[in-house]
Amino acid sequence: MTKKNRIEVYLNGLPYTLLTDRSENEAEEIIEYVEKLVDQLALQHSSLTKLALSQLSALNIAEELFAEKDAYSRYQEHSRIPLEKYPELLEEIEKYKSTIREKENQETVYRRKLEEKNRDIFEKNKKIKDLENIISQKSEKIEALEKNQSRLEKIFLDNQQSMNRLRKELEELKGKVR
Q1: How do residues 32-87 score in pLDDT, each as one tens digit?
Q2: Helix, strand and coil percent figures for the chain, each rounded to 5
Q3: 8 A C-beta contact, residue 46 and residue 38
Q4: Fewest beta carbons within 10 Å, which of 5, 18, 135, 175?
Q5: What are the beta bridge partners of residue 20?
Q6: Cα(148)–Cα(66) distance, rounded to whole angstroms?
């Protein structure tokens, strides 16, 4: 059990010893509250003695206390169901957290796979471009070779015609020489 503080207070000019768990400042607030209530009642009931005012104040404070106890009971009842569901909700939250962690881990794995696939695609695109360049170069060489072949074929045909003409001339000369 906690040790109670003994605080000397004055109420209506009379000394009292208050045993409380509260601080001295809090005790002063309580005294001010009681004195204010007694003063208000004295204004409303000027014919009452100090004892009667104190008793009436005690009744009012007791009524306030009971009203607060009722409000507290209603609050407890109102909060009972959420408090009973709290462990179940905590368990559900932990399940969701676990699911989220799993999904985050899956996302990390998928991101890594995606990055790997993107690197593969990048490398394959680079190879495709390199091959397209090689094809372009080869196409240019083929085109140049085809042009050269056409030129050589023309030269060959020209040479063949020249040779045929020269043969014919040679045959004619042979025929004349005989």
Answers
A1: 999 999 999 999 999 999 889 989 999 999 999 999 999 999 998 888 888 888 88
A2: 85, 10, 10
A3: no
A4: 175
A5: 5
A6: 115
Query: Which pLDDT tens digit goes with each residue over 7-17?
Result: 888 777 788 88
In total, the chain counts a number of residues equal to: 178
In 3D, which of 11, 4, 7 has the Cα closest to residue 25? 7
Residues 6+ apart with CB under 8 A from 57: 34, 37, 38, 41
In degrees to the nearest 10, what's the CA dihedral of 133, 139, 143, 149? Answer: 120
For residues 97 and 102, what is the distance between their CA atoms, to the nearest angstrom? Answer: 9
* Buried b / exposed e along 17-31 (16+ C-beta atoms within 10 A): ebeeeeeeeebeeee
d(CA 161, CA 171): 15
What span, in angstroms and rounded, lies between the C-alpha atoms of 43 and 36? 11
Name the token pair of 154. Answer: 């023309």
Residue found under tokens 């909060």: 79
